[in-house]
Amino acid sequence: MSNFNPWHSVSYGSNVPDVVTAVIEIPRNSRAKYELDKETGMLKLDRVLYSSVYYPANYGFVPQTYCDDNDPLDILVLSQIDMQPMCIVEAKIIGVMRMFDQGEADDKLIAVCANDMSVAHINDISELPPYFMDELRHFFEEYKRLENKVVKIEDFQNARLAKKILMHSINDYKLKFGNKEK
User: Fold this and answer.
1) Is 98 marked as a binding-site residue?
2) Given Cys at both, which of 51, 119, 130, 151 links 112, Cβ 3.0 to 4.6 Å?
3) pLDDT band at 89 (very low <50, low <70, confident <90, very high)
4) 173 near 65, Cβ under 8 Å?
5) Where are the domains of the chain?
6) Where does substrate bind (predicted)?
């Protein structure tokens, strides 16, 4: 069996911090909570969301990043399409949603699909419609409520801070696992 694992084997891209390679775990409009199995590199069904809510954007992670929750950095990729799980996509960073899950920091980068002309012109989170921001906030505050878990959205921040968080998570990965980027 191969040692391929998307977290460790896929590059985060050559244009960081502006554009990253994202690995999609969950397509937009899904109630399935898929996540990368760290041991095998396969995608596993963690659970079906308890609440009648759907992911408002394609959701995944940035390879070769590491965060305080012992996982790769999460990313939401906006696009007009629902992307297939384990799809690799070039994502232009436009902001970050600062949040706490069960009291633990769990930032979510917000990006647009660089190869989707319906959103590729967006350069900063301030350009998104306020309603969409409310929808994102509502989803993440509600999606674990019926599990009696608390998620708190601290704030949405601009692309500049998002890129700093990205670079910090790349450096933390290198400290934890060594420099795998070629």
Assistant:
1) no
2) 119
3) very high
4) yes
5) 6-172
6) 33, 47, 59, 143
Find the mean pLDDT for residues 50-55. 91
pLDDT band at 1 (very low <50, low <70, confident <90, very high): very low
Instruction: Summarize the confidence of residues 99-107 as an average pLDDT.
Output: 85
Report the C-alpha gap between 41 and 38 in whole angstroms.
6
Is there a binding annotation on residue 59?
Answer: yes
Q: Is 69 annotated as a binding residue?
A: yes
CA distances from 122 to 36, 56, 156, 175 (A): 29, 17, 16, 33
Pick the CATH number of 6-172 from 3.40.47.10, 3.20.20.80, 3.90.80.10, 2.60.40.420: 3.90.80.10
18 belongs to an annotated ligand binding site: no
**Residue-by-residue DSSP string for 74-126:** EEEEE-SSPPPTT-EEEEEEEEEEEEEETTEE--EEEEEETT-TTTTT--SGG
**33 marked as part of a ligand binding site:** yes
Amino acid identity of residue 125, one-letter, is I
